[in-house]
Design a protein that fits this description.
about 15% strand, eight-stranded mixed β-sheet
Length: about 280
């Protein structure tokens, strides 16, 4: 299986590696399933079936235009299609950054069907936008500026974005210029429409009402130096609203944990997968 067809005939590119209990990896913005390769290999080699797919509009998936193609109800339905067509049962859902929103909306919209565990990494949950009842969020003007920068020169925008994403100035977790260029090249595979619309979706969707739908063991991992999605406005709050959650904070770590802290992240994920649900 290397593609899944959704209800609106969008085709999603899928990697399906290994055999064993299924683990479904949902990537962050603005990347693709390729960002998971280090973890996917280790998890497959540890005796799991790993399913990682490119979100609609990103990577090698179809880039639809019409309607509300990039809202979280649609994205959660895409995840449902992946689960159903892959035949995954008792799966662990792992959502990075924006991907945490798909996990949350799937748990609420599809009642967590076929899910045994969840993991949220550097997740945008529960609500990114600053409002009167969410004072820790980010101002709408900041997201508007991002949309304008993407329209003006997204290649230039991503150059600076990924330096912050991976904490490029970190002495403890330095990343190479080649890794930054690799991430930017993946981001540029996405359509401009998908890139902007998904940014609008993760910045404006309120998942606070979805948190009670997490009725399975849930691992939450976040870096304390994350400037892309600050931990105080995200995972610390989400952990309080998810009943069976465990929060692990990576001291001084930035957003892109899959690269900057890949050995520790892989180890923590494997330990979580080994626990009985």
């Amino acid at each position: 299986m290397n593609t899944v067809e959704t209800t609106d005939k969008t085709r999603l590119y899928v990697k399906d590696w290994g055999e064993g209990p299924p683990v479904i990896l949902i990537h962050g913005w603005p990347l693709s399933s390729d960002s998971w390769d280090d973890q996917a290999m280790a998890i497959a080699e540890a005796g799991h079936r790993v399913i990682a797919y490119d979100r609609r509009g990103f990577g090698r998936s179809t880039q639809p235009w019409s309607g509300y193609d990039y809202d979280y109800d649609t994205l959660a339905d895409d995840l449902a299609a992946v689960i159903q067509q892959s035949g995954a049962q008792d799966a662990t859902l792992v959502g990075f950054s924006m991907g945490g929103g798909e996990v949350a909306r799937y748990m609420a919209r599809h009642s967590g069907q076929s899910v045994a565990k969840c993991a949220l990494l550097s997740s945008i949950l529960p609500f990114r936008l600053k409002t009167d009842d969410n004072p820790a969020g980010t101002e709408q003007a900041a997201f508007d500026q991002t949309a304008e920068a993407l329209k003006t020169d997204r290649t230039h925008f991503f150059t600076g974005f990924f330096k912050t994403f991976f904490g490029e100035d970190s002495e403890d977790r330095p990343v190479s210029a080649e890794l930054l260029e690799w991430a930017r090249s993946i981001a540029l595979q996405a359509s401009l429409k998908a890139t902007i619309e998904c940014m609008r979706s993760f910045s404006s969707t309120d998942f606070r009402g979805d948190l009670p739908a997490f009725t399975v063991p849930t691992l939450i991992i976040h870096g304390t130096a994350d400037k892309t999605v600050p931990i105080a406005a995200s995972s610390r709050i989400a952990a309080q609203g998810i009943a069976q959650s465990t929060l692990i904070e990576y001291d001084s770590a930035p957003h892109g944990l899959f690269a900057t802290d890949k050995e520790r992240l892989t180890s923590d994920l494997l330990a979580f997968l080994a626990r009985k649900a």
